Amino acid sequence: MLLPGIVDFTQKLIKLDSVNPPGNEAPVAKLTGDLLTAYDFAVDYIPYGDNRLHLVAEKGCHSNSPAVIFTGHFDTVPLGVKAWTVDPLGGEVTDGKIFGRGSSDMKGGIAAMALAAIQAFESGNPACGVRLVFTAGEETGCQGAKHLVNEYKKFGKVFGIVVGEPTSNIPAVGHKGGLYLKVTTTGKTAHSSMPHLGENAIYKAARAILKTEKFDFRDDKDQLLGFSTLNVGRMQGGINLNSVPDYAEFTIDARTTTNINHTELLSTLKNELGAEADIEVLVDLPAVSSPENSPFVQAVYKACGISAGTEGFPKSLPYLTDGAVLQPAFGGIPTVILGPGQPELAHQTDEYCLVENLERAVEIYKNIILRMNDDSFGAGIL
Length: 382
Description:
The protein is α+β, with helices and mostly antiparallel strands.
């Protein structure tokens, strides 16, 4: 099989609709897997529901030899209400930009990782193995990655993880965790002209929401991630204007640093919101944080052309990634978020990725793989 260019392969991935829900990531996984198989990668497909697949592909991996993991996700978010000015599944290239849903988040990253891995073995002789871990079901809370680490038992030893989420090729060594909650309150319905005969669930929700507005994490500032935050993002309740509502609900999005234990946070919230509020956990993902001086992070920095002590580093990100699942699954190994996409365009109408960023990402990823030849790097193996 002739190795496609980065634009061509990204276009092919964009043209396959993998909007989640429902996902339908299997065709994207198969297209990627067929390419990797043609270049002698061992490819495993792990089922994840109807027409949904994870992919794990590797080359040069041995039982006693650590590998570097490159990871990304096949699914994309919905197209949104606002009309696109280009075909969202077309992969149109204009003015040095490739447009389409997933171009930045993150089919461009998937394409760059796959091509870089192939090129590294075609042009050199990497001393370490390469393992590509591409998941279904990331966009709704990283459930796919959780499923994969529970089901797949052949990962082996690992140097570190590169997560290809959009960062404009600027490496970040951490991001906040997320605790997503649904809070419900119940009451007793009655005619609104006789509210004393009912029990108003919306009032209960309102009282709980006002408590969240003043919530204090009581945590110290994380040197990398800053302070934890909490936001109520959605609230609904009642069935009509002239009834006392017997049900209401709202959501809490807590973004947490490494200073926060989610079990303790949940217990504190339950105590503060009181018995009127019932709390359901929707997503529970820890913060990602890696020491900047680790050999793996330094190897990634060098591949990106970043020298020690460069102003503005280390960097962290505000959004969640599969790194929140994979880092703890591998015992806390160094994890870097690094991808060609434009972070400000993720989930946006007329999403695009700069072609030059895609091309640069291939070179960066390839250099990361080839830098594993450095004998001194072995000190950082976990």
